[in-house]
Design a protein that fits this description.
The protein is mainly α and 586 residues long. It has 34 helices and no strands.
Length: 586
């Protein structure tokens, strides 16, 4: 059996091309005009301009419009732009869409936009994809509303840059629409990003990844970020790093951040800085923050300020905060103001708080409220608290709620307290509970006269505040539990409050223990309460020691109760003290 030599694919392609070229040359020798045009185009693609030119000129002279277009391309490559335009015009007039596109580009490069539009439109209307894209680009530059239809036409014919730009346009339109919820523009933008990304457009892959990440489809988002990052898109490498960090893979995240930072991505450099700062590697962190700054990312200066502040390098922190603040970094302006305030420079702090707040810093708006409240300018303070509360600041909402309660505007106060309580403020939850508690009707009675207890909304808010460590709420939950006969639950909450330093909690726990027959333990908690200034606890101790016959000790606690008050307790304690004195002197 005869052996057959296997030819590598590349060699087969070269062999096929050589055979095709040989066939075309034979046809050219026989005077075939089409062969002249084809052979000229083959040589032009190969870069053999000298070999291609005579064939293209011969075919052009014989009226071949494709040859005229290619001759224009050849002359343009040689640097003879005007002569190239002449041949493109001939081919375009003869109906060549490619030549019309090339001629339109030529006129645009020379600033003749009317002529450029005319020829690009000729090309686009013949279905030439490059002509449609170039026409869309020209019209978009002018702000012409018909640009989108030509961009869409190019995208539909597979032009990936047109698909990307169409998606960006739809994205911008969606961003300016004020109706809530995703619209058709958002969905269509995603489709075009996807089409461009599938054709290898790295920025489209980046934007597609961002859309998918926002929607929570992290696995697919990561795939598109990876595709884009591998194609050299630094922002995608940075985004991929954050995705990996959130998934717990810090080491892989650092690899992609490093790649992005080395390509000039300031956000990635900041991320690396933060990573090294967390590890205590402050010098390396500082180096990356500086790299972020060099890349034009103002966060670099802000982060350097934070780093210096943590190390107690106040002067340097102020320097970096100022640099970022002057560049428009609102959180740096707020941090600078806080630093100046800590140094006692209220006058210097106020304008930076204002600048940060006006730029949208919610924390700065809240801090301005504190600043004005400290000066006694309650109206101005409330204005800033309200602005911060409207942006979702929990503590600001609490302050507005408290102010509205003082003014008797209970409904408005309740609205703000609900916002603050929902945001996690224990104090707001407690105050909201007290508002609701005051409205609570008397407990409905059962037919047989037994109280029927159903947990109310105010109790739920008391419990939420109590579970967050709010001592007064813990005492109140204990009281409500005791009222419904749940002694164990009441004792648990009183004890939590007392152990956290609540004198009322300690007093009530003592009452509960005394009723349960544990007077010695009750005395321990009353002593703690009295030591914290609770007059009733001191009176209870005086009575307890009097019953035991320890009159001197009882007299000391009676004296303490008189001092602590309130008036009613003081009067009772005074009578007890006088009786004890008479008994002791008898």
């Amino acid at each position: 059996m005869q052996s057959v030599d296997l030819v590598p694919p590349a060699d087969r392609d070269e062999a096929g091309e050589a055979a095709e070229e040989a066939r075309q040359r034979l046809a050219v020798e026989a005077g075939d005009v089409e062969a002249m045009s084809v052979l000229g185009a083959m040589l032009l693609r190969r870069g053999d301009l000298d070999g291609a030119e005579p064939h293209l000129r011969a075919a052009t002279a014989a009226g071949d419009r494709a040859a005229a277009n290619n001759l224009g391309v050849l002359l343009h490559q040689r640097g003879y732009a005007d002569e190239a335009a002449g041949w493109w015009r001939i081919a375009a007039v003869a109906g060549s869409a490619a030549a019309a596109h090339a001629l339109g580009r030529h006129h645009r490069e020379r600033g003749d936009e009317p002529a450029a539009e005319y020829w690009l439109r000729q090309s686009a209307e013949q279905g030439h994809v490059l002509g449609a894209y170039a026409l869309a680009d020209l019209l978009e530059h002018r702000g012409d509303g018909t640009a989108e239809q030509w961009m869409r036409a190019a995208a539909e014919r597979g032009h990936r840059e047109a698909a990307y730009r169409l998606a960006r346009s739809l994205d911008r339109r969606a961003a300016h629409e004020e109706e809530a919820g995703p619209g058709d523009a958002v969905e269509e933008a995603e489709q075009w990003y996807r089409q461009a990304a599938a054709r290898g457009h790295r920025r489209a892959a980046l934007h597609l990844g961002a859309i998918l990440e926002k929607r929570g489809e992290l696995r697919e988002a990561g795939r598109w970020y990876l595709t884009s990052a591998k194609d050299g898109e630094a922002r995608a490498a940075c985004a991929l790093g954050f995705l990996l960090r959130d998934a717990g893979d810090i080491e892989s995240a650092a690899v992609w951040w490093l790649r992005a930072a080395q390509d000039g991505d300031g956000n990635a450099a900041n991320a690396l800085g933060a990573l090294h700062a967390e590890r205590g590697e402050t010098q390396t962190a500082e180096r990356w923050y500086r790299a972020a700054m060099d890349a034009g990312d103002d966060n670099g200066a802000y982060n350097l300020g934070l780093l210096c502040a943590e190390q107690g390098r106040t002067a340097q922190a102020e320097q970096w905060y100022r640099r970022a603040a002057y560049a428009g970094h609102r959180e740096a302006a707020n941090a600078l103001a806080i630093l100046l305030l800590q140094e006692g420079d209220t006058t210097g702090a106020e304008p930076w708080f204002s600048k940060a707040a006006e730029a949208g810093s919610v924390d700065a708006a809240f801090n301005l409220g504190i600043l004005y409240a400290g000066r006694g300018e309650d109206g101005a303070a409330l204005d800033w608290y309200e602005r911060a509360a409207a942006a979702g600041h929990t503590e600001a909402a609490l302050q507005v709620g408290i102010a509205r309660l003082r003014e008797g505007e209970e409904q408005e106060a309740e609205r703000h307290l609900r916002c603050a309580a929902g945001g996690g403020s224990a104090e707001a939850a407690y105050r909201l509970a007290t508002v609701l508690d005051a409205r609570r009707p008397a407990e409905p009675a059962h037919e047989l006269g037994e109280v029927v207890h159903e947990k109310t909304e105010c109790e739920e808010w008391y419990e939420r505040a109590a579970s967050q460590g709010h001592r007064r709420a813990q005492v109140r939950v204990g009281m409500l539990s005791a009222a419904r006969g749940d002694v164990v639950e009441a004792a648990r909450w009183y004890r939590r409050a007392a152990e956290a330093g609540s004198r009322n909690g300690a007093f009530n726990l003592g009452l509960l223990l005394a009723r349960e027959g544990s007077e010695p333990e009750a005395a321990v908690w009353w002593e703690r309460a009295a030591g914290a200034g609770h007059g009733r606890a001191a009176l209870r101790l005086a009575l307890l020691y009097a019953r035991r016959g320890e009159l001197a000790v009882a007299q000391r606690w009676a004296d303490r109760a008189v001092t602590l008050g309130p008036a009613e307790v003081g009067e009772r304690a005074a009578r007890l003290r006088d009786a004890l004195r008479q008994e002791l002197s008898a």
